[in-house]
Amino acid sequence: MNESPKILINCDMGESYGPFKVGNDEALMPLIDACNIACGFHAGDPWHMEKTIDLALEHKVLIGAHPGYPDLQGFGRRPMHIPAKELSAIIKYQIAALKGMLESKGGNLHHVKPHGALYNAMANDIALAKTVIEAIHAIDSTLPLMGLAGSCLQQYAESHQVPFIPEAFADRYYEPHGMLRSRTLANAVIVDPEKATQQVIQIAYQQHVSTYEGPLIPLAAQSFCIHGDNPSAVNMLDVLRNVLNDHSLLTQYILNED
Amino acid sequence: MNESPKILINCDMGESYGPFKVGNDEALMPLIDACNIACGFHAGDPWHMEKTIDLALEHKVLIGAHPGYPDLQGFGRRPMHIPAKELSAIIKYQIAALKGMLESKGGNLHHVKPHGALYNAMANDIALAKTVIEAIHAIDSTLPLMGLAGSCLQQYAESHQVPFIPEAFADRYYEPHGMLRSRTLANAVIVDPEKATQQVIQIAYQQHVSTYEGPLIPLAAQSFCIHGDNPSAVNMLDVLRNVLNDHSLLTQYILNED
Amino acid sequence: MNESPKILINCDMGESYGPFKVGNDEALMPLIDACNIACGFHAGDPWHMEKTIDLALEHKVLIGAHPGYPDLQGFGRRPMHIPAKELSAIIKYQIAALKGMLESKGGNLHHVKPHGALYNAMANDIALAKTVIEAIHAIDSTLPLMGLAGSCLQQYAESHQVPFIPEAFADRYYEPHGMLRSRTLANAVIVDPEKATQQVIQIAYQQHVSTYEGPLIPLAAQSFCIHGDNPSAVNMLDVLRNVLNDHSLLTQYILNED
Amino acid sequence: MNESPKILINCDMGESYGPFKVGNDEALMPLIDACNIACGFHAGDPWHMEKTIDLALEHKVLIGAHPGYPDLQGFGRRPMHIPAKELSAIIKYQIAALKGMLESKGGNLHHVKPHGALYNAMANDIALAKTVIEAIHAIDSTLPLMGLAGSCLQQYAESHQVPFIPEAFADRYYEPHGMLRSRTLANAVIVDPEKATQQVIQIAYQQHVSTYEGPLIPLAAQSFCIHGDNPSAVNMLDVLRNVLNDHSLLTQYILNED
């Protein structure tokens, strides 16, 4: 069991915008290892970004940039077709904004996880992914990209020495082809904390996951996402952390040693 | 004449947004010493910011951040009342975004010049100015602020050791009380290149300026702004540079020595 | 008691934006007489506007337009200075959009209630108020304006034959000078349903209101606002409606007879 | 030649946004029969909409609504995937806003022409087109849709009794398959006024068009678009109108008789 990777539990955060509140960052932050902070395009505004940075630093949670499409009304979940040069600039801008604000507080940016429709498109569209990867590396060539575990993107990253953190989902069902079960279908989201924990353990130890009404498929991941808007998120994180602690799987990142 | 300060000619740039074109950056950039690049809130988008950075680096023009109010429809020219904490985050965000994009190209940020209604409000409202200055210094405590020459802000900056670049306007008439003649009145803008050049020379050598139908008043400045949307901007810069060259007043900044 | 006016209980609604949820419209709509629907500038998007229209028509609730400043990030609560011609167009645009969508469902627009910083500014700034009133009347000269009871605006409206619905607040404390106690102070909001109900009854019957640690002052109103984001809103409306029913004060608007 | 249809020359207008100027509406308006006014989502703001309405009414030019995707930064030219219900609301909102503002000036809305990426997508995607058509008819079931001549959309409209104005382009080259030559290729835009006029006459009389380095293909249209940002637009309209006058092809719409 020594070979099993330490696990990084992450949540998307800082997605409130002005008076529009999203998620429950205060309650979740103490329970996670890493957060992905929205950068103002699909969600988030500078003031909420700053508060989320402060909260993450206080709880010694690793901080990633969470850039998205420029589409607040669609929360970055609507596919958009943006020319590569413009997309590149959009990504650099968002990462640089968060990185600079974070460094002004003495923190360091740990990774970049693209958001929503951009995240999904990058899983399979390598030309798009290369545009985003080059933009990330223009800002900092050592910044790891967090992306969908088991995707074409992961294959590309690993064969091209792109620092990559494969991510699986604790609270979403998988389909036999390895993609997440669509939110437009019933039983897309796992709300039972025990079931979610079981899925994490299964992926961490067996490098496989049970699919929805289908077979076991291979899946290896270093980071696990729990959605902040999952109604069981706090409960789920409590249960999960206890079990991972028992398995000595929990990463104990200390920011200063990072 | 040795004591006369070298002169920094600056223009606001990068204010195009998507397909909406503003100004004539390509023609003006070779003729100026410093540019202030819009950061995406009152104008500018990431792609135009990147193109403007490239253009400025190519012409060895000093680069300042030009943050503004979050008001694209009003171009940051409408006064807004934003709580200090939120305004602080808005300023940090914009500066960090530009600074990070610039550094990814090997450049360095030279100064910060707030835009429009924010620039004007800071000239007299010291509480507001302190919020902005603290935000600038959170990003980089050595970054100079460019602001209105002869204003309360300049007095405050100088008595509090805030790095400050006092700015005068080449192409705007002054009123006897030292403010710019309002654009809502006739004869607010100087379009005659000779007249604008004369005003710059007058301020640079005599530390005074002639006011509109009024007396000579004291005014000292290190940087002179020419508005990119002045119809004579290119002409004016040609004439001005020739005269300044003859007077050996022209700053010859070289980015690597900065 | 015959002379006491029927009471119109209103709530601001339709303020969600894309995935950003605001308020609890489904629970509140059955309990109110009138709603003010956000029109997409300070909050609301077309899809939420349409859903809110449907919900209001289903519950036979009167529908007002709730236009605001073009400031989503500030939720229309930040004072802005917009030239009169532009503000006029902004108001017409928002009212026309809601009115057209409403009429496409067979409904009729009942009134206009400006939002947030615009509402507050109009209470005292008659020049501003005239701009908004003319914009409203350009769309429909019979549309009543809902505004702050006891304000300069009400005086102006009544002396100039502007259809006007004076509005008081059920869940906010008043100051001795007749303005609402600022949200920046403690005890600005009333959360006790009994206390809120008592305040409504007091205003309705006595045309006076108790002020915060001050004297009774005159105040007459035809409509009472309860804020959808008041944590006691549903409870408060239940209590209030029962008491008003007992007093036969409750308006029983039927849309077709309006 | 009696059977040749009268010709409606149209331009997209009102696409300025705040201080961002687009096009040359004042010069073009006297030269056209119909304009399509942007409605604030891909371009345009309420104040420019109002000015454009006034200008069109002054010159007795027919007014169409020109709704687009909610993407100012991309000018509505980036394909977006928006759920049907949300798109429907977005279309209704934009049309209602323009229609209400127009009617407040005594004008009447003549047609709806979707913009940019939405226009192009509707030409071939009938499911999408149905969503938009239903939204248009919800506002006014007699409002004609203006769309690409010779497209699947035209076929659908004609076989389903949807009022439809087939539109061809005066200043764009056609490809043999009937689509416009892409702007990403050389020779996409016609700038020679004689050539553009020739193309209009060819389509109007022969119901055919010469394609770029290809054969003559069938094409019938009732309205012809000239792009306001074509550098020869004013010239082109002068030449075109003279020739059309000689051919008695020019529509002489008078708004009151419409």
Characterise this structure:
The structure is a homotetramer of 258-residue chains. Chain A is an alpha/beta fold and 258 residues long. Chain A has 8 helices and 9 strands. Chain A has helices spanning 25-28, 46-58, 84-103, 116-124, 126-139, 152-159, 193-206, 233-246; strands spanning 8-13, 34-38, 62-66, 111-112, 145-148, 164-169, 208-210, 216-218, 223-225. In chain A, strand 7 (208-210) and strand 8 (216-218) form a beta hairpin. In chain A, helix 4 crosses helix 5. The longest helix of chain A is centred in the middle third of the chain and has 20 residues, at 84-103. Chain A starts with 7 loop residues before the first strand and ends in a 12-residue tail after the last helix.
TL;DR of this structure?
4 copies of one chain form a homotetramer. Chain A has helices at residues 25-28, 46-58, 84-103, 116-124, 126-139, 152-159, 193-206, 233-246, and strands spanning 8-13, 34-38, 62-66, 111-112, 145-148, 164-169, 208-210, 216-218, 223-225.
Which CATH class of chain A?
Alpha Beta
Helix content percent band of chain A: 25-40%
What is the chains' assembly state? homotetramer
Radius of gyration of chain A: 17 Å
What fraction of the residues of chain A are assigned to beta strands by DSSP? Answer: 5-15%
Number of helices of chain A: 8
Give average pLDDT of chain A, whole number: 92
User: Main sheet of chain A: which strands, in order across?
Assistant: 4-3-2-1-9-6-5
3D shape of chain A: globular
Q: How widely separated are the two ends of chain A?
A: 24 Å
The CATH superfamily of chain A turns out to be Glycoside hydrolase/deacetylase
Q: Any guess at the CATH architecture of chain A?
A: Alpha-Beta Barrel
Tally of domains of chain A: 1
**Largest interface, counted by CB within 8 Å of the partner chain's CB:** A-B, 24 and 24 residues
